[in-house]
Amino acid sequence: MKDLELQDTLGPEALDQLFLEARSQNGWRDTPVDDATLEQLYDLVKMGPTSANCSPARFVFIRTAEGKEKLAPALSKSNVDKTMTAPVTVLVCHDMEFYEKLPELFPHGDAKSWFTGSPALIEETAMRNGSLAGGYLIMAARALGLDCGPLSGFEADKVEEAFLAGTTWKVNFICNIGYGDPDKVWGRLPRLSFDDACVMV
Amino acid sequence: MKDLELQDTLGPEALDQLFLEARSQNGWRDTPVDDATLEQLYDLVKMGPTSANCSPARFVFIRTAEGKEKLAPALSKSNVDKTMTAPVTVLVCHDMEFYEKLPELFPHGDAKSWFTGSPALIEETAMRNGSLAGGYLIMAARALGLDCGPLSGFEADKVEEAFLAGTTWKVNFICNIGYGDPDKVWGRLPRLSFDDACVMV
Fold this sequence. Notes:
Putative NADH dehydrogenase/NAD(P)H nitroreductase GGQ68_003481 (chains A, B), alpha+beta, homodimer, NADH Oxidase, globular, flavoprotein (chains A, B), NADP (chains A, B), Nitroreductase-like (chains A, B), oxidoreductase (chains A, B)
């Protein structure tokens, strides 16, 4: 139970690790990532909020050479090396039948009925909330001291044929995970200013 | 420049604050959130990765009674009270013409040309990366000691008519921000187990 004191802001080192100094990685150190760490990662990610707790995100953790070889032909050229050498490559997916779990995940009401027969709402909800979980994944990995290399340059149909055949899962994006090689990080790109991206009302 | 030591995992209190003990809020304490905090929040969120640094997310921070009144008719009934009383209500938006900023944001190549004439790719990229930024917003707010109450129960066309007319921005979801009232938090809902949501390859 939370007490009535306000929570503090995290310290500057934590803000650096999560946001300000964290960088997308193009190369990796040899340090492996063990399966227990991936379970701990999921146990953080799953707690992030989704609408009506719909929890559409699903994750394929590729750690083996065989898995990487199956993935390689689906990647754009510039994403092959960094993915083949990453300790873990995560397919960030969502289940297009996520609503089948709503009686368990949201027992307050008949949330499943909001979706049945509404393919546009299903797709929008899966994409929004699956992507939110992708954001939680990146933040949770960084919170655990891991580095990320997210990427969208791949052919989704090939990834789905290789890894998701016979399921109702679709791939959203891919995120390499491990301990980054700082020598392979690119220069930081600019960001939009507050005034370019935000409005105060 | 990062040194070659591995980063530590954040401490248990930080993991609680970001993920494990953080809860979606239905009521708020009187403590206000000042504009400087919102600028600090954006300065964290903007650093989160997006594909080719495309940065499609835009944010409308509603802090005034007039702004709240304009928003109220667009909200589902159960979302009105908690939104009217929240210190700040954020419209998490994305700019459907985000690619116009790519010459500035991604000077490595002609990334703008990937999108021109491809409305499906524009929409998918805006939704994926705008939602990722929504995930960063929730995590950044929590990192700053704030609480969140994200919600999808609203009529997007009414929100856009009231706040985004004449722009190329679309609303994705809404997130109330402030210091939550722990007495108004609901019981924690279940989550999918690792084996239900994850596959190891």
